[in-house]
Amino acid sequence: MTAYLKLDHIDKIFTRGAATTEVLKDINLTIEKGEYVSIIGHSGCGKSTLLNIIAGLTVASTGGVLLENREVNSPGPDRAVVFQNHSLLPWLTVFENVKLGVDKVFARTKTRAEREAWVMHNLNLVQMAHAKDKRPSEISGGMKQRVGIARALAMEPKVLLLDEPFGALDALTRAHLQDSVMALHQKLGNTILMITHDVDEAVLLSDRIVMMTNGPSARIGEVLDVPLARPRKRLELASNATYLKCRQRVLEFLYERHRFVEAA
Amino acid sequence: MNMSVKKIDAEGVAPSAGAAAAVVAMTPKRPPRSETYARMAKEAAVRVIPPLVVLALLTLVWELICRRAGSTLPPPSRVFKDTKELILDPFFDHGGIDKGLFWHLSASLQRVAYGYSIAAIVGIALGTLVGQSVWAMRGLDPLFQVLRTIPPLAWLPLSLAAFRDGQPSAIFVIFITSVWPIIINTAVGIRNIPQDYRNVAAVVQLNPLEFFGKIMIPAAAPYIFTGLRIGIGLSWLAIVAAEMLIGGVGIGFFIWDAWNSSHISEIILALFYVGIIGFVLDRLIAGLGKFVTHGTAQS
User: Fold this and answer.
1) How many folded domains does chain B comprise?
2) pLDDT tens, position by position, B274-289
3) Which residues does the UniProt record annotate as the domain ABC transporter (chain A) (predicted)?
4) What is the enclosing helix (H) or strand (E) of A15?
5) Structural domain boundaries, residue B273
6) Substitution target from B197, B204, B214, B294 for chain A, most A beta carbons within 10 A
């Protein structure tokens, strides 16, 4: 197994005044190139913190992140993030939002015309080319998230980090976008790490599902392989035995062994 | 059974809906001009007529109160008669300070332009610093909070002592008056930039200069323009007072001069101009802000 992205003994302790909270404890994970890995867990288990550590937006207390055997501890376009709430800049058009990253990443390697063509190429990938001159406030939530995905893809990241990318969308839009992401993964072969709390989403999209125990001191409880052939079809999988078994395993983990404890 | 009924209904409705759509599509093309003009005229009337009525009533009351014998202030009819020349010829220049109102106002506006421009640049720069750096805030904010309460005119003797000239002193007073709201609002705007935008900038790896230009200024623009708008109001307030003391050409000294020569009507005319210009300046900055920040509203 070749480690493309390696999380090496990551601990995260938050300190506020005299109080310290251990959020993550001893997280170890290796991800291969081209793999689609989901991290699932109850809210508050620190999965978003883990993603921020990988993205370099938060620093791990101990341990570190290795990407192609090199330590990464600051944010960069090689680990582009699709944020939960899309985080498009409202004063820029769709085109300019994607271009912001492209201009930085390809400042030396592409000419201006090439960069603009590349922006359009990525908007086309997510079927948003028609709205290139609209501002984020003029497009729907699902469209915003598509643009967010285009912005991340356009930076040609080594690892694409998705932070609950479909969490804020309605069920139909979500399904539509999940299919889009699956198609993109199929086409481009990106390495993707996705944070989610949706069991069906995790099983449908992932090659492996990393299940986290409840915090504080959340650990990786179990890693489940999803041996389903791609391309996967949502409707066919609904009655697929492997799919149901995987789904069952995740549900058992989340609702029996590590039931969400309401904070008192 | 239900279904078949629905089906018939749908079929029955469809052609009429199509016909209605065709009619609707045609109608607005016919009387567009006159109708839109009428509507615009109506909207304008709704805005313009009430203040005009109030103005007319107030003028009438003023006329009635002040036309009695022994009244200390002139009625509007006297004001108009006394200042007719000033109103009709604002461009005369007899040398010295004996100039038309246009020259006085433009001299005042020029001072405001200098002082306010410096205040805008310094205010946004300092506000960015204070908003961005916790240590700058801890160090500077208490100082700002104390300094901003000092009345504009209290600075004037000090600046006269420092600059030994009226012109730079007046500009300094404008600057020191209008800089505080710009600093404070910019700082609040910078501090309120959502973490999401900062994360985006971090992932894209914008350098500090790009971050300033592409994230900070647009994100904080609504706050900055609030500060700029308060600032322009304050600087127009301060210039009139400052000019009364420094003399020379300027609307402030024009008022003071008119008082010294007991030309009360001229004072009233000057106040009218000061009010109108203050209003226009405020609208100007508000309009500019609206234009610049039209895309910044949170989505």
Assistant:
1) 1
2) 999 999 999 999 999 8
3) 5-239
4) strand A5-16
5) 101-292
6) B204
